[in-house]
Specification:
By secondary structure, the chain is mostly helical. Helices cover 74% and strands 0% of the residues.
Length: 351
């Protein structure tokens, strides 16, 4: 075996081992054991079996059909597990109904079939074996991409359902993570499919791509602290209801246009203390009171800056009209939310 082969084995196996260790952490070591974490761990274990088969097939010789079919069969598990994971991350108190296990029938059939197909049978039924292997492979990859598509649709529906809560930090984190996760699986799927189509890319590229993707997903999971949250963030509690009330009052009465609006005055309108009002806004929006108010002011200012009938209005007049007490605070807030100054925004959008 050449040095390059050894290097490729190490690289492709590294992600596989990392995925298994991450799965063990989620399913066994982590104190907060939730259904979504368990499902994610099972997905990683199933993918490890699939990638392990690829590594053995690429570097091993005369690999038994049992290992080939069994490794491919685990892709039929990943699809349903992925769908259930998305549901668990977007539904409060998600439980697995008994009828969901029907989705595991394709895996059971192919995995069971792998025990009855030997190398001798393959050699004796060459043409039939090719037909069986080819049709099974096609079904497995269509099954996998189909579930990725279904999971994406579920995520989009959930995002639409919780549109009024996407300002909440934990809600945004969940959808950001699910989007990254699905993209990762699409990349892995493409790397294998391109390999099947007339050896477009070397077979070992699949495991290597998996290693890169799994390391990146692990980093993002840590960065977003995704293993500490689940669909429970969408449960409505007293703070959620009060925040909805705060938002409605501020938007319906356009209180953000008042330069002297304060936590105490807002608290009186919803019947709670200024301290609790501040806590609710911080917790539910991820912004402090000033940033929360300034966000809506900036949205109104953007409309005014783009209005061709208000081109003669100065930046200062728009700032004061939208509730800012000074031009400097307007410029600072606008740049924070839009990444540019109001004058740059007007120039860019009106050219």
């Amino acid at each position: 075996m050449s040095f390059l082969d050894i290097l490729l084995i190490v690289i492709s196996s590294a992600g596989l081992l990392h995925g298994i260790l991450f799965a063990i952490y989620l399913c066994v070591i982590k104190k907060k054991k939730t259904l979504p974490n368990l499902l994610l761990g099972l997905i990683l274990i199933c993918m490890a079996f699939r990638i392990g088969k690829s590594v053995m097939l690429n570097f091993g010789h005369e690999l038994e059909p049992l290992f080939i079919f069994a490794g491919l069969a685990f892709l039929l598990l990943i699809g349903p597990l992925l769908r259930w994971y998305v549901l668990g991350m977007t539904q409060y108190d998600f439980k697995l109904p008994a009828h969901y296990y029907v989705e595991l029938i394709p895996f059971t059939i192919v995995f069971g079939m792998s025990f009855f197909i030997s190398k001798n049978w393959f050699d004796a039924h060459d043409k039939l074996a090719i037909v069986i292997f080819g049709s099974t492979l096609l079904f497995i990859y269509l099954h996998f991409i189909g579930y990725i598509f279904i999971s994406g649709r579920l995520m989009k529906k959930a995002k639409k359902r919780y549109a009024d809560r996407l300002h909440i930090k934990t809600s945004k984190v969940i959808f950001e993570w699910l989007y990254i996760l699905l993209i990762g699986f699409i990349i892995i799927w493409f790397s294998y499919v391109l390999n099947i189509i007339e050896d477009t890319i070397p077979y070992i590229v699949g495991p290597i791509v998996y290693s890169v993707v799994i390391y990146f997903l692990s980093y993002k999971a840590y960065d977003l602290k995704i293993t500490d949250i689940d669909g429970g963030v969408f449960k409505e509690n007293d703070h959620t209801l009060l925040f909805t009330k705060v938002k409605q009052i501020i938007l319906n009465q356009k209180l953000y246009l008042e330069s002297d609006i304060s936590l105490s005055s807002l608290g009186k309108l919803i019947g709670v203390s200024a301290q609790k009002t501040s806590k609710i806004i911080n917790q539910e929006s991820g912004y402090n009171f000033n940033d929360f108010i300034n966000y809506y002011r900036v949205q109104d200012a953007k409309v005014a800056l783009l209005d061709v009938t208000k081109l003669q209005y100065t930046i200062s007049s728009i700032a004061f009209d939208t509730g800012f007490s000074s031009l400097s605070s307007f410029n600072s807030a606008f740049k924070k939310f839009e990444g540019m100054t109001p004058s740059s925004f007007r120039k860019l959008k009106n050219n």
